[in-house]
Design a protein that fits this description.
The structure is a homodimer. Chain A has seven helices and 17 strands. Chain A is α/β, with parallel strands linked by helices. Chain A folds into two domains: 172 residues, FAD/NAD(P)-binding domain (3-Layer(bba) Sandwich); 104 residues, 3-Layer(bba) Sandwich (FAD/NAD(P)-binding domain). In chain A, strands 1, 2, 3, 4, 5, 6 and 17 form a seven-stranded mixed beta sheet that branches. A five-stranded parallel beta sheet of chain A has the order 7-14-8-9-10, with helices on one face. Chain A is globular. Chains A and B meet through helix 1, helix 3 and helix 7 of A and helix 1, helix 3 and helix 7 of B.
């Protein structure tokens, strides 16, 4: 069991990791070795103290060097969920691994893509965020996959191995995956409909040539870089999608702290860095 | 009238300045061109994301370059006080200048030297923080000057021009100032005593050779790098010397925000940078 698990490898998570290490705590950090797609895409960062007008790529490179100097390695397993136990927490990965910790810092960012109408109400009834967890449930079925990033294309392949038919609705350019049973549809998904379970994925605009207004499907997979904190951790209090935290970054769940964009605006590197630092200090206090 | 006045040139103040500039707000920042004695003295900084194991001096140099690139200049006039008016704020300098703003960010740090017993109760009755404001009141009198940093030695000279006798109690090494009417005393001041006004400055330990237990004085000047926020701005709510702030860094005074060490622990660069950023965004919101 480690002292703390950090979910997210953006600047909030990295700040927390560096500070936990300075405080001699054991921890795991889950995310991506490329750290954050959002930072990487930033053209210029004008207001981060200490780095004059760096590009997102330069910032990422500096952070990667720093992590490597500090011998901190990001665990790239995708997180399926975090569960508060009687004592401590268990993190389950989408690959079925388990990790235990005494405290948790959620630094999972905010999803810039809005939730689709009906999405939350059909979670567990046809809506899934995890290909490897739930893919087998859709053997020989028809599914829609809304995917926001090319990095998750391999998960689409995984789903196509099970499903009879896959409608892929990509939110990124240059789709590379090609399979006989995958049909790419470039339209904005608007609503998930159904009764007891998901029945249709409806689109936003008027039907175009060859694209129906709605797709009859058995399931909808939402493959996003980050998962909403409330879905990641049941019972977490949120407001408008943001985790409710105190000045010490504590959430309503004892031992669970949050930092960075997931706690609300401003969505700024400096703010995220500060909150990651405070969350790490609060974890150190909590562990006493 | 500028949009905002920032008091303090540590990382919290700098972060606020860079973000106000990014938000196209007009502002003044008061502090020191050498930014922060505290950062300068830091041996190594291990947990500031983006800068691997920099020394305090390197961090200061990076920040100075960034400010100069951004054409942000620190105003070195010493701040005597900030006053909330019916609309906006007035800052008075110790040199008697006035500056107006619509909002204020206090980023004045925490004084690592503790207050002396009796100090706060005798403010305005013999205790002063401002040589140029109050020096003339002590013409031909006897005063004690407790000075925490060599940078303020010139103020001692100013006081010695008026006073008949100056007892200098330095909290730094290598005292350079020499005057006939200045006596340097190397002891820990413990208590300011008196009735209606200051009468004595008492020391902590037993009287040593040639140093009495207490000095009979007409006034005590406390010359410190930073002034406690509550003394800087009357009516500000504090707790254990820290400004009480919300998640948006607002204080109990409308339009007045605070950031950095003055809002409480952890005293960390990352935390200060984050809070400066949030305070600047809150100012932008407030100005709407």
């Amino acid at each position: 069991m480690v002292d703390c698990i950090i979910v997210g490898s953006g600047v909030a998570g990295i700040s927390a990791a560096l500070t936990l290490q300075a405080n001699r705590k054991t921890f795991l950090i889950f995310g991506s070795k490329s750290l954050s797609e959002k930072i990487e895409k930033a053209e210029k960062i004008h207001n981060y103290p200490g780095l004059s007008d760096v590009s997102g790529k330069e910032f990422i490179a500096a952070l990667q060097t720093q992590l490597s100097d500090a011998k901190i390695e990001v665990n790239e397993e995708k997180v399926a969920g975090v569960y508060a136990l009687k004592e401590g927490f268990t993190l389950l990965t989408q690959g079925g691994e388990q990790y235990q910790s005494r405290a948790v810092i959620l630094a999972c960012g905010v999803e810039s893509v809005k939730q689709i109408e009906g999405e939350e109400s059909f979670v567990g009834r046809g809506v899934s965020y995890c290909a490897t967890c739930d893919g087998f449930l859709y053997k020989d079925k028809t599914i829609a996959v809304v995917c926001t990033t090319k990095r998750l294309e391999h998960e689409i392949g995984y789903l196509a191995d099970f499903a009879e038919k896959v409608y892929l609705i990509p939110m990124y350019k240059n789709v590379e995956i090609e399979r006989e049973n995958i049909t790419v549809i470039r339209k904005m998904p608007a609503k998930i409909e159904g009764n007891l379970r998901v029945e249709n994925l409806a689109f936003a605009s008027a039907p175009a040539e060859n694209i129906p207004e709605k797709l009859p499907v058995n399931g909808v997979f939402m493959l996003r870089e980050s998962v909403s904190p409330a879905i990641l951790m049941g019972g977490l209090q949120t407001e408008n999608g943001h985790v409710i935290v105190g000045r010490d970054m504590s959430t309503n769940i004892t031992g669970c702290f949050a930092a960075g964009d997931c706690t609300g605006r401003p969505y700024q590197y400096a703010k995220a860095v500060g909150e990651g630092n405070v969350a790490a200090h609060s974890v150190s206090e909590f562990l006493k």
